[in-house]
Design brief:
By secondary structure, the chain is mainly alpha-helical.
């Protein structure tokens, strides 16, 4: 999620170093960076929530795997 926020803001933070003769060359990637940044934020939120609302815990999965290895 933090990487998504960085992806959304990096083009604005780096604009002064990518501006030559009044043209902001970092602005070329505005749409692409917005899509990628939004996707990363949504993926981070989904990952955080999926562990919380998962019907099977990670501990249950590891014990089931150990039982399968024994049989």
């Amino acid at each position: 999620m933090i990487v998504g926020v960085l992806t959304l803001t990096i083009q604005f933070l780096m604009a002064p170093t990518h501006t030559l003769d009044g043209i902001n060359y970092a602005n070329v990637w505005h749409v692409v960076m917005s899509i990628i940044g939004s996707g990363l934020i949504l993926a981070g939120i989904f990952t955080a929530l999926s562990h919380r609302f998962s019907p099977i815990s990670v501990k249950t999965l590891s014990t089931d795997k150990k039982l399968q290895e024994r049989n």
